[in-house]
Amino acid sequence: MRRRRRINPPEAELDITSFMNLMIVLVPVLLLSLVFSQVRILNLQLPVAGQTTDNPNDERQVLELVITQTGFELNYPAGILLKKFAKTDSGYQFAKLSLYLQDLKLTFQQNKHEKSDIVLLLAPEIDYQTIVSTMDTVRSFKAVVAANLVDAELFPQISLGDAPASIANSQEGTNAGLQAGTNARTQSGGKP
Predict the structure, then answer these.
(1) What pLDDT digit, counting tens, does each position of 141-178 carry?
(2) Residue 79 and residue 71: Cα distance in Å, rounded?
(3) Contacts (Cβ under 8 Å, ≥6 apart) of 84
(4) pLDDT greater than 50 at residue 18
(5) Buried-exposed string 42-74: b where 16+ CB fall within 10 A, e elsewhere
(6) Cα–Cα dist 88/174, whole Å
(7) d(Cα 78, Cα 24) in Å, to the nearest integer?
(8) Neighbour tally for 75: CB within 10 Å
(9) pTM value?
(10) pLDDT tens sequence across 24-33
(11) Strand bridging mode 140-145 / 117-122
(12) What residues form DSSP beta bridges with 158?
């Protein structure tokens, strides 16, 4: 009887050259398209309770921006209305506020008065995005300098506070009046 010898087939080599070429091209492309998270930090100035100054006139020389559901109120000195920006159907008027603040900053510079601080007074129920957009608007604006677009400084030292109670109460009264009017029309069969 004759024995048959098993012949082992030769081991096939795995050709990964084309796969390696694909990885060499794919890895840089994926790394370039990767979006890294960006964290932005704004430094806020906390108002100091009972802060005293040498000059009593400096206490009232505060630039205030009151943010309510009905719009912006710019006060200078503190508590004295300088300009009001009513909220429109499209939302808050950030562009008009920025233009007015640019003019105000120029006026301060012409009078040799260095002012870089502003206090944002927030009414209750103001959403976070409105606060952030307002902070971006009062902090800087886009300007062209030597054919380059740069961020020019307005009022970068921002403090936060609560809106005066009289404004918050009048806003709540306005909102309650609108709600009562809507409820009355709904109950009488009118469209809200």
Answers:
(1) 888 888 888 888 888 888 888 888 876 566 555 554 44
(2) 16
(3) 71, 72, 73, 74
(4) yes
(5) eeeeeeeeeeeeeeeeeeeebbbbbbbbbbbbb
(6) 16
(7) 63
(8) 19
(9) 0.61
(10) 999 988 888 8
(11) unpaired
(12) 44, 118
In the structure encoding, which two tokens stand for residue 42, read together?
């704004």
- In the Cβ-directed half-sphere of 116, how many Cα atoms lie within 13 Å? 8
Contact 43, 135 (CB under 8 A): no
Q: Give the Å distances, CA to CA, from 176 to 72, 157, 167.
A: 20, 35, 14
How many residues belong to the chain?
Answer: 192
Return mean pLDDT, the chain: 79
The residue with tokens 């390696």 is 20
The pairing of beta strand 117-122 with beta strand 64-68: parallel
What is d(CA 113, CA 25) in angstroms, rounded to the nearest whole number? 59
Closest CA to 118 of 67, 55, 169, 53: 67
